[in-house]
Every structure is written in C-alpha cells, then in structure tokens.
Design brief:
Distance between the termini: 39 Å
Structural class: alpha+beta
Number of strands: 13
Number of helices: 8
Strand order of the largest sheet: 1-2-6-7-8-9
Shape: globular
Largest sheet: 6 strands, mixed
Mean pLDDT: 88
Strand content: 15-25%
Helix content: 25-40%
Length: 359
C-alpha cells in the first residue's frame, strides 16, 4: 500500500515537493491574482548560477499568444527573428537589426523557424523575404528564484549566503527565496542564519505541502544594471583587499531573462525523468492518492537523483523485452509510459491552441 506521506528526506525530493507546492499555492501570501498565471521549472539559470526552483509570473493573455509558437523553447537566434519579423513581406536584412554575428547564421535560423512553422519565409530571386505569423508577446512579467535547503546547518548557510548575495547583486530575478523544512519551532532556525535581508524565507512541510513565510523578500531591480561579483576579498568581508566585480547591462539581463523563461516554458519541473533511466526495471513513480508523482527506485527503496539513476548504477537492469508486449505500446515499455504520463501533466500547465506551431 502506498503511504499517505511522501518521502522527502533528500534535497532532491524536497525540491520536487517545493515545485509542486509552488504550482498549487503561489504566491506564498495566498493573494492570488486572476490576471497572473504561474509556470514552475527547476534547475535553470546561467553558466555562473543555477537556481533550484523558478516561478514565472505570466500575463495569461500573452501566455496564450506564446502558445502559438509551440511547446519547444525558442533559442536566442530564433527570438531575434520572431521578435523583429515584420507584418508584411520584407527582405530579411531590411527587417532585422544586425545580430552582432554573420548574416549566414541568421539565414540558417530563418529556415529553421520556417520549418517549425513559427515564421513565413519565401525566396524572391536571390533575396530571402520574411513575414511574421504572430507577434511575439511580452508574456513573462516576473521571475522568482527559490533555493531549496531542507536541512540548513551553519556551513550550508555560509555557502548559500554567498550565492544569495550574488543573486541580489546581479538582480537577474525579481525575487529570491530560501525554502527550508518546517521545524515547528517558534522561530525557524533559518532566520538565525546570516543570509541577505533581501531574500525571503519559506518554511515548508514536504508531507502536507503547508508553508509559512518567515521573511518576505525585497523586490530586486531586475530592469536596471546589475553587479556581478567576480572575486571576493581573501581576508574577510572587511579586509584590505578589494573585491572584483563588473556591471551587467540591463539589455543583457533582459535577454538572459527571456532565454531562461523560454527554457522554463519548455521544460517545467517534471522533466527530471529525462535525465534518468525510466527504462530500468526498478524505476517507479510513486505517490499517495491525489499527490504528485515522485521517482522511486525499487532496488534501493529511495527517491533517487539523476546522478544515481544512470546506466552506471550497479542495480540497473533494462526492462525485460516481454514487458513491451503485455499491453504496453510496442515502441516502449513501462518506462516510456511513465515519461508520457509526466509529459501529459506538464502540458496541462500550459495554454493550448489549435492554430499554433507544433499542435
């Protein structure tokens, strides 16, 4: 019999429970706005900083327009085209701003966008002309970053503190939070740690998905220049050696925010199965009735991480071929079905359109 609570002892399992809570309950103060739709994703960011959980606060109407461009993310070269494509047929070099790289790459991106059905392209003599199919909307209004630390001891708090200071200085997200396991104490221990005051604190019970706000965050200046910390003083925060930093241009931040939002739109948070081996005979999805589905290893009895659930695992055994002939689709066994189940749940959180690309 499946237990009534979900094992969230590991940081990975806690992270998935945080994602589920955010999908159901965001915003934390319970003041839900009918004019805002939320998309939750995980393990996204930049090459310098990756966040555990991301919440996109979106305009519902604009998000529905974004659905026209299909469920897959738009890369930066495709965004450059669809955001600047004209309403009438125009030579592409006249229509698009210079991308900062050779035009031949733009031509390749135009053909890719045409193949995906998100742009119209034609050849007039030796000239490629383009025309937009739909205006690309400004659909993502805010980005909220959440760091998940179920058991935050002093050493973990010091490491997390420097990461949050980086987030606050760059201000790539509009808000940053720390989610930790609810202890039931009058003052949650995380509030006693030396964390930036700009970061919010959320105490979450992973079993019941009930959460209390211990500290509300400050809104960060995401539309202004940011400061990227490159090197900290090596003799303490008040020492004589100088820190090294650089400014981040607002437009560079805006481009990066949109790239993160596009990746979040495509992946969501249930994509954890894409980095695991659901084709292993011991791979399971387990949950209490009505609860979310978490990965579980039948060999170890744990909620395994992607690093543990790989072909190098000593317990890995491929699904027996006979499983694929007992009522399962011929193109795959139970593992394929589990991936399809999670993909279907991810699609439920996205607007649908009958006229868009990839429908």
């Amino acid at each position: 019999m499946v237990p009534d609570t979900v094992d969230a002892d590991s940081e990975f399992a806690f992270e998935l429970r945080t994602c589920r809570w955010a999908e159901r309950e965001w915003p934390p103060d319970g003041d839900s706005d009918a004019d805002t739709t939320h998309i939750v994703a995980r393990q996204l960011g930049t090459k310098r900083r990756r966040w555990d959980t991301i919440v996109l606060e979106c305009d519902p109407g604009a998000l529905a327009q974004r659905a026209n461009f299909g469920p897959k993310r738009l890369e930066s070269d495709h965004l450059h085209i669809v955001r600047n494509a004209p309403a009438e047929w125009t030579y592409y070099r006249d229509a698009l701003p210079h991308p900062g790289y050779p035009w031949r790459y733009v031509r390749e991106a135009i053909h890719e966008a045409d193949d995906r059905g998100i742009l119209e392209a034609r050849k007039q003599g030796n000239r490629i002309e383009i025309r937009r199919k739909w205006p690309y909307p400004d659909w993502c209004e805010r980005i909220v970053a959440i760091e998940n630390k179920p058991d935050l001891d002093a050493s973990a708090a010091r490491a997390l503190g420097s990461q949050l200071e980086y987030d606050v200085a760059v201000a790539l997200a509009d808000e940053v939070w720390v989610a930790t396991r609810q202890t039931g104490e009058r003052v949650e221990p995380v509030l006693l740690e030396d964390l930036p005051v700009e970061a919010g604190v959320l105490a979450l019970d992973p079993d019941t998905l009930e959460a209390d706000v211990g500290w509300y965050p400050r809104s960060l200046a995401a539309d202004e220049s940011g400061t990227r910390i490159l090197e900290r003083p090596d003799d303490g925060t008040r020492g004589s050696s100088a820190a090294r930093f650089e400014y981040v241009d607002p437009q560079q931040k805006a481009d990066k925010r949109l790239a993160i939002a596009e990746r979040a739109y495509e992946r969501g948070w249930r994509s954890f199965v894409d980095t695991m081996r659901p084709d292993c005979r011991y791979f399971e999805l387990q949950a209490a009735e009505g609860a979310q589905l978490l990965p579980r290893c039948g060999a170890t009895g744990d909620c395994q991480t992607a690093a543990q659930c790989s072909g190098s695992c000593p317990d890995f055994q491929p699904e027996p071929p006979i499983w694929r002939t007992k009522g399962w689709p011929l193109e795959g066994g139970p593992g394929k079905r589990l991936k399809a189940l999670l993909a279907d749940r991810r699609r439920r959180q996205r607007p649908r359109t009958d006229t868009g690309a990839g429908q």
